[in-house]
Amino acid sequence: MAATADTIFDQHLTARAFSLTSAFWFAFATSIGMVAAGYLIAPDFMANIPYLQFGRIRPIHVNLVLFGFVTPGLLAAAHYYVPRLLRTDLFSQKLGLMSVILWNVAVVSAVVSLSTGHSQGREYAELIWPVDMLVIVSFALVVLNLLMTVRRRKEPVLYVSIWYACAAVILTALTFSLGNVIWRPDTGALLGIPDAILLWFYGHNVFGLLLTPLTLGLAYYVIPIVTRNPLYSHTLSLIGFWSLLVVYTHIGTHHLLQVPVPTWLKVVATVDSVAMVIPVMVFLINIWYTAKGKLGEIHADIAGKFIFTGTIFYFFVSIQGSIMALPQVQRITHFNNWVIAHSHLGVLGFAGLSALGGLYYILPKITGKPLYSRFLADLQYWLVLIGIVGFTVVLTIAGLVQGNSWFAGETLYRTLPEIHSYYVVRLSIGLFIALAAYIGLYNVIRTIYFNPGEEA
Ligand code: HEM
Ligand code: HEM
Question: pLDDT confidence of 149, banded at 50, 70, 90?
């Protein structure tokens, strides 16, 4: 029996719920980012409302982009392509829906707790214990659903996207628990230097073992389909997978090169940060060779366009990252806007663009209807692209001004007027990204619920 839009709609409850989650929190998170950026220009522009102080708003923005926007976007796609590649249905749509509901309860609790000042004060691990638990349980439900789907598969061969999706959720459930020191509910922390080491082991794994594998898994799925080319090399895809796991797990201490952690650990982190060139280039060679000669097809497909552009940003952010892990370079770039540029380049340019591409790839498949507006999706692409490039240029220059001034012995206060205009430009560029997020939300809602398009 041919699948009608209604039956397709019922089959993909989880992917749809994660898509809506991602689109909604993208809009919310960028709005909060605008407020944070406003503070850096005029520190009392919010009249010192306690709930909206910079120290509370910043972690809300960061947690929302990570756990509200990018991860759910990538998970929406994974809940579509994992069953598809395994030629089976998702183990349970009900379980999936429960995981999305719990996920959103966790994200709302994060916003409420952080804005009311309940924070454990450790970067990327600010959430208090009860919220940590909610995150862990939602992750556990996702893990259960995906693994049970793998167990009941009809397809014996596990394509590399399955490896990446499963590794991402399993390893993150573990490193999240470890990094948040969940066996110490009161502080969520160890003491002193061991705590910093553990925190950054987890902190960089958020990017290395969650966002990166989910994004690579998605690219490995979508790019061959969009280009109608077979994957260039399955062997390379496995080398890339295992080298990513081996190398990425050692590099967290590159966040602590200016801290009295044992020197051998800094050496391992620096050497392995440079060795990241291996998994990164193995992936890029594989994907770019798969896409060779098919740039026209990629340009014509909105999902391919977002995801392929994400791979280009992956190249830049990773090369930049390897260079930033060299102590001589970090003496200038650490603790200033250079790192903020790198963060947005990675989390938005690489993982965020890909997550949006994932949404646009699956939406027609999970609704049985075409995307509500290709024009709006294109507009969103260009707005976000201008935003990322603009952020990178402005924040990198601001970072170099700060870093070089401090290196020359200048005080922090005297550098602030120097970078004020860069902050104004950053806020203005932020408007492009915020607008793009609201356009995306509108397009996603119209595609899912009020779509006049013909059934595909
Ligand atoms: C309207 C758009 C946005 C604006 C105005 C904005 C602004 C900001 C600001 C002001 C900070 C704090 C920087 C500091 O402490 O100096 C920040 C941090 C951050 N933002 Fe955004 N942001 C925006 C969108 C996004 C998006 C869409 C993402 C990811 C998808 C993102 C990811 C991050 C991350 C990961 C950090 C933490 C940086 C770090 O700790 O190094 N931002 N953002
Ligand atoms: C080869 C790959 C990469 C390497 C070697 C690398 C290296 C680094 C280094 C050395 C820092 C610390 C900078 C400092 O504090 O001075 C850093 C920070 C950061 N990186 Fe990367 N990076 C890589 C890829 C990525 C990717 C793909 C993402 C995003 C998906 C990302 C997101 C971030 C973020 C958000 C921070 C800021 C952390 C903070 O708040 O201090 N990085 N990276």
Answer: very high
Å from CA of 211 to ligand 2 middle:
12
Q: Which of 164, 330, 339, 340 is the best mutation target for the ligand 2 pocket, counting ligand atoms within 8 Å of the beta carbon and taking the most?
A: 339
Nearest CA to ligand 1 atom 6: 33
Burial class (CB in 10 A: 0-12, 13-18, 19+), 444: buried
The pTM is what? 0.96
Q: Is the pLDDT of residue 4 over 80?
A: no
The residue-averaged pLDDT of 440-452 equals 93
Boundaries of every domain in the chain: 5-448
> CATH homologous superfamily of domain 5-448?
Cytochrome c oxidase-like, subunit I domain (1.20.210.10)
pLDDT digits (tens, 9 = 90+) for 12-29: 999 999 999 999 999 999
pLDDT band at 1 (very low <50, low <70, confident <90, very high): very low
Tell me which residues have their CB closer than 6 angstroms to ligand 1: 30, 33-34, 36-37, 40, 58, 61-62, 65, 69-70, 339-340, 343-344, 347-348, 352, 430, 433-434
CA angle 397, 32, 126 (to 5 degrees): 90
Q: Which atom of ligand 1 is nearest to the CA of 387?
A: 2
Question: Please, which contacts does 444-450 make with residues 24 or more away whose CB atoms are closer than 8 Å?
Answer: 444/19, 444/20, 444/23, 444/359, 444/363, 445/20, 445/23, 446/372, 446/373, 447/363, 447/364, 447/367, 447/369, 447/371, 447/372, 448/16, 448/19, 448/20, 448/363, 448/367, 450/372
